[in-house]
Specification:
The structure is a single chain. The protein is an alpha/beta fold and about 575 residues long. The chain contains 17 helices and 25 strands. The longest helix has 16 residues, at about 455-470. The radius of gyration is 23 Å and the shape is globular.
Length: about 575
């Protein structure tokens, strides 16, 4: 914890950099006493967390400065960054909320307001909300069991047990499936039995189309019947290895979703919500097509959206929310249900500032016990960073750049690809890069690195294909994360063009990339079965141990053209 002198020095530095930090509220002791007090409203309350990526401890997490919306998504949530987001939602610059929801003045604000998240702090807040809202439920949107060293090394058991202790009631999934179908089913059928409902209306068997999990669950809150329908990530077998879930099919499945909504209503549901891992653009389109859904609690795209986006459809309005990532936020939706229907609602997305919330003692002890056997390995000091290291944004982040540089150096490659993953915590200048922090960026069940010879034409085809996943004008064809991170090759991108014509002016070391020439390209996280290679964390650790200090480095960002003044793009 920072002492008063250090705090005042930080305020001086922040002020000199032009940051209007709200100094009266900066220290935990001077925080507004009612920051986490939610006035009661209505008779049905649902809490929502998503995409925590196995982060049990408080962390730093920088929001993106590049989240480009095209077509109908231009200038609409979630494609607003920085000051554009603040203006849209009426959030005052320089405040805690401004820091939580944007990248603005990130370093100074992070040092002032401290870390975010942590399951011990989240537990305290969940219990506080429950105390004021009897019968409230906690929904988990998935990407919960993956993203940390201990989650990987315990085969997800640490997160399974943490979520039970946290009090999760209903869950759906995405990265959970990368532990394999057998492991997922064992957890759902045994660990979650009589405690957590795992729901997914869009996961069925390949052969007969049988439901693998319950499509929905019906809960009674203060006498009101509430249906919670699950929607797992539709493109799991494409974005992640197919061989891990060989007998299951996913997909968006609007028709089936409508049937499930209608069935739930017919069985007496007065409130129908979807717990989704579609990504927000997909949820918005689904909300326009499927009727009878009161709200969609969304995940996957890691968007911290302060208020629901209201989508009109043939029979009413659906509220679409997205609750950020890494344990940084808790969404609280209150419904007023009268005469068997929702007549009013209130929503707040609560940033979890760790130094404003006392950690729950039982959860804190659990976390300490889980981490203890791995302490020596987790705490290995690999290097110190002089740069702000983050991963988030459509094209690249500084930690992504570090991974690319490590791949090229250790593998002896001309160029490198790193997946457009959105998960991964942030390190401030001066922080030690431990194995724990490296695993936050790399902990997956298919971590092999590769070195391949590819022609310039093949490289362009790969980049065009991934770019279409990100910028296809139809959200239903956006099949994964952000743009593949590219090392060694500079390029120009026009997001508004069609596939095959978005990527141009590709150069390597100042020379045009030759379509027929072969280049050595390093990569990691292959989705094909049977690929072997040194795990990515070992490659990056080797590089870090060698350089010892991570200096600020040039971020390999493409030249973006054809988007005009886009409120999702600030460089």
């Amino acid at each position: 914890m920072m002492n008063r002198r250090e705090f005042l020095q930080m305020l001086a530095v922040a002020a000199a950099s032009g940051m209007a930090i709200d100094s009266k509220q900066a220290l935990a002791g001077n925080a507004p006493a009612d920051f986490y007090d939610l006035p009661q409203f209505g008779n049905v309350s649902l809490m929502h967390m998503t995409d925590c990526h196995a982060q049990l401890l408080p962390i730093y997490f920088r929001e993106p400065n590049v989240n480009i919306g095209i077509g109908s998504a231009l200038g609409q949530p979630p494609h607003l960054v920085g000051e554009y987001l603040l203006k849209y939602y009426g959030i005052r610059p320089g405040t805690r909320e401004a820091h939580a929801f944007t990248y603005l003045d990130f370093q100074a604000a992070a040092r002032t307001y401290g870390k975010v998240g942590g399951f011990a702090h989240l537990k305290t807040l969940v219990d506080k909300v429950r105390a004021s809202r009897p019968g409230s439920l906690l929904l988990d949107g998935g990407d919960t069991w993956q993203g940390s060293a201990t989650a990987l090394w315990t085969n997800a058991q640490d997160m399974v047990d943490a979520c039970k202790l946290l009090g999760v009631n209903v869950m759906t999934g995405h990265w959970e499936f990368t532990y394999g179908a057998e492991r997922v089913k064992h957890i759902v059928d045994h660990d979650f039995k009589n405690s957590i409902d795992f729901v997914a209306q869009n996961v069925t068997t390949n052969d007969f189309g049988d439901q693998v999990f319950k499509p929905y669950t019906m809960k009674v809150i203060n006498g009101v019947h509430v249906a919670i329908i699950g929607q797992s990530f539709p493109y799991t077998p494409i974005a992640n290895p197919r061989y891990m879930v060989p007998d299951w099919t996913f997909g968006i499945q609007d028709e089936n979703m409508q049937k499930v909504v209608d069935e739930a209503r017919a069985k007496g549901a007065q409130v129908v919500v979807v717990l989704s891992h579609n990504g927000m653009d997909v949820d918005i389109k689904m909300a326009s097509r499927v009727t009878g859904i009161d709200a969609i609690f969304g995940g996957h795209t890691h968007d911290g959206v302060p208020q629901p986006y209201q989508v009109k459809n043939a029979k009413g309005t659906t509220l679409v929310t997205n609750a950020g990532s890494n344990g940084k936020f808790l969404g609280v939706m209150d419904f007023d249900v009268q005469g068997k229907k929702v007549v009013g609602w209130k929503y707040r997305l609560l940033p979890i500032f760790s130094n404003l919330i006392a950690p729950d003692a039982k959860m804190e002890a659990f976390i300490n016990n889980v981490r203890a056997p791995f302490a020596a390995k987790l705490n290995e000091k690999l290097a110190v960073t002089e740069d702000l290291l983050y991963r988030r944004g459509n094209f690249n982040g500084t930690f992504d750049q570090l991974i690319l540089d490590a791949l090229m150096a250790v593998k002896g490659a001309d160029a490198a690809f790193s997946p457009g993953f959105r998960w991964g915590t942030t390190l401030l200048p001066g922080d030690v890069i431990t194995m724990d922090k490296l695993m936050d960026q790399t902990a997956i069940t298919y971590p092999s690195t590769t070195l391949s010879e590819m022609t310039g034409a093949t490289i362009k085809t790969i980049m065009e294909d991934v770019c279409d996943n990100l910028f296809n004008s139809d959200p239903y064809y956006q099949q994964g994360g952000d743009m593949v991170r590219v090392g060694g090759i500079q390029y120009t991108v026009n997001p508004n063009n069609k596939i095959g014509n978005r990527i141009s002016n590709m150069t390597l070391k100042g020379k045009p990339v030759d379509a027929s020439r072969k280049y050595k390209v390093a990569g990691w996280a292959p989705v094909g079965e049977g690929v072997t290679g040194t795990p990515i964390w070992d490659v990056v650790a080797t590089y870090l141990r060698d350089i010892k200090v991570v200096k600020p480095r040039q971020l390999n960002m493409p030249k973006v053209v054809g988007i005009g003044k886009n409120p999702g793009y600030v460089i």
